Amino acid sequence: MTQPASDATAIVALTDAAKHFGPVRALDGVTLSIRPGDCLGLVGHNGAGKSTLVNVINGTLPPSAGRIDFPLSGATAAAAACVRSIFQELSLCPNLTVAENLRIAHRGLGGLNWRRAARQQVREALDMVFPGHRIDADATVDTLSIAERQMAEIAIGFAPRDAAASLVILDEPTSSLDAAIAQQLLDYVRRFCAAGGAVIFISHMLGEIFDVASRILVMKDGKVVAERPATEFTRQGLVDAMGHVAPEGAAVQAARAFGPQIVATPEGLTACRGEIVGLSGLAGHGQAEALARLYLGATSSWRSAGGRMVFVAGDRGRDGIFPLWSILRNASVSILPRIARRAIVDPAKEGHIAADWQRRIGIRTADLSNPILSLSGGNQQKVLFARALASDAPVVVMDDPMRGVDVGTKQDVYAMIRSEAAKGRTFLWYSTETEEVCQCDRVVVFRNGRISAELTGADITEERILQASFQMEEA
User: Fold this and answer.
1) Would you say 256 and 274 are in contact if contact means Cβ atoms under 8 Å apart?
2) Where are the domains of the chain?
3) Which residue in 181, 287, 307, 468 has its CB near the most CB atoms, within 10 A?
4) Reduced to 3 states, what is the DSSP secondary structure of residue 158?
5) Which residue has the higher pLDDT, 270 or 285?
6) pLDDT at res. 472
7) Are strands 426-430 and 276-280 parallel, antiparallel or unpaired?
8) Does the structure show a pLDDT above 60 at 298?
């Protein structure tokens, strides 16, 4: 049971906190306290109110009602209480180096030699959280992979700066990390909390929640619907509390007959009509690059007899959404040739198709004409799926597409992918999540830019994937 804001031992305490956006109650009377040593697992479907809650805690949004206090420090603001946020939508300045990005967050870092000090501090923070990271503090952020950018942002969030962080909010922190790097972060979170820090850990990967959380809070429609020690939840009980029943683990896929081979690349990546091909292995070992070369046609040696391709981006801010467009325009851009006559788009057809996919994939918005940035990150990702699946492209290329998507929607998307594949559509699917890879008909594991193993059927297991990720196998 949470304590009221009068709890003097809490880093932050909320009493009946609410946030309203017109008639929408994004946060609806939450009482919560977080103490030193807590790791609070915060779960709920996309649009449940998780992001609004943490934005009220970190001071980005003022509450419409209720109270928020920082009694332990006596501070009146989150920044003074050393509350830090690391969001799924990465916020590093792409034209600056990693060290220069630390300087933006560390206002006390000055003097003629501040760059030297910034390099030293960011290296120490990276070594502390991600030993063996190989990230250059002088590297410009836009030259880093999305996994490296996420690692850099996490390290900057935990860096001491003027004072040590008391509470760190991690919003889907492993969404771009492979299993080995994600485990490094989870290990550090446990050490940080054991030393007296506190963490709010938001993730749709329920295994991670159970791995690090001392307490789990479940949100639905802006309210807290369950809160108790992590040991008192089961995985199915947690999913039930969220309001969507999902099966335990990945379903074993029945063998299917495929059509002719329609994709082949120099790396040896192939795909047949109707096949779901997964790309796996440690992040940064060539999977995303292989898909980019295939999709963009950067070389002349690959062939695709299947015709057009459509792309679902994992890094939606850089490669996916059109931020100045509406939800409707973002969803319908792939179908414009189909609904236009003499270069004029039929708005009735556009609206009908977009509304159909909104219903099928569960995009949470009252009006498709709203800006795409009005949606949560997970709902933005749903729009990218709707865009791809609504098209008539026979080949779908997906680059770690489930970032920030809740467990219930994941199950729905898996079912949609299998249904589309049964109709003859081909999927090439890179993922850092083993659960997703196990949805595929065939998995190719990359290591050092090469395919180290090809797995099918019962061989598609986490153990076999990890084995192939770390050691080249015979063909």
Assistant:
1) yes
2) 12-242, 246-307+394-475
3) 287
4) helix
5) 270
6) 45
7) parallel
8) no
Instruction: Indicate the residue type of 61.
Output: L
Higher pLDDT, 93 or 376: 93
CA distance 78 to 80: 5
Token output for 467: 């084995």
DSSP bridge pairs for 97: 140
Residue 308 one-letter amino acid: R
Give the DSSP letter string of 281-323.
SSTTSSHHHHHHHHHHT-SSS-EETT--EEEE-SSIIIII--T
Reported as a pLDDT band with limits 50, 70 and 90, residue 404 is: low
Residue corresponding to tokens 């779908």 = 396
C-alpha torsion 74→79→82→83, nearest 10: 110
Identify the CA nearest to 405 among candidates 46, 47, 150: 46
Please state the three-class secondary structure of 358-413 as a single string.
Answer: HHHHCCCCCCCCCEHHHCCHHHHHHHHHHHHHHCCCCEEEEECCCCCCCHHHHHHH
Report the C-alpha gap between 198 and 215 in whole angstroms. Answer: 12
pLDDT at 199 over 90: yes
**Do 12-242 and 246-307+394-475 have matching folds?**
yes
Q: What is the pLDDT of the chain when averaged over all its residues?
A: 83
Domain 12-242 belongs in CATH node 3.40.50.2300: no
List pLDDT tens digits, range 246-269: 333 344 455 577 889 988 887 788
Closest C-alpha to 253, from 461, 41, 54: 461
26 vs 395: which has the higher pLDDT: 395
pTM of the prediction? 0.63
CA distance to 3, 333, 464, per residue, from 33 (Å) = 6, 45, 43
pLDDT tens digits, 29-60: 899 999 999 999 998 876 788 888 998 998 88
Q: Which CATH superfamily is domain 246-307+394-475 in?
A: P-loop containing nucleotide triphosphate hydrolases (3.40.50.300)
Query: Phi/psi zone of residue 248: left (φ > 0), alpha (ψ -120 to 50 degrees), beta?
Result: beta
Report which residue type is found at 405: V
